[in-house]
Amino acid sequence: MSDTLFPLMYAYAEKATRLSMAAIHQFSLEHELSAPQLKALFFLQDSPQATINNVAGHFGFSKAAASQTIDRLVERGLVNRQIDPDDRRTKRLSLTAQGKDKVAQASQARRAWLHTLIDSFSAEEQAALQPAFQILLEGMNKVFSQSDNS
To answer: Does pTM top 0.70 for this prediction?
Structure first.
């Protein structure tokens, strides 16, 4: 491992994480969404037709806490709760159009710092960074796809 590369990559990863987390926190405050509510919205984007039990299990919430979180999102018109036609005891959850829009806004807010950073570089600097980030991304895909298959 490179003694000079590790601290640079670590510093970048730490700063990027902090900036993304700060942006999503600010979005949560501005849109009056709790962290669990926002997490649930992102989960439902990736897991349409999930159940309360799925939400609770994914985040380690109690079923009651997951239910309260979803209740607030249903009240705000961000989530639909429908009875499963195959099992009437089960309620399926999905994002409304407004919920999908809210997730898209949150994603955009989380990435805004990156646009600002890129814009701060000259065209030459951007061109110089592009191959390095391509190598980095390819390495991450290789390493983490291997660990996912283990």
So the answer is: yes
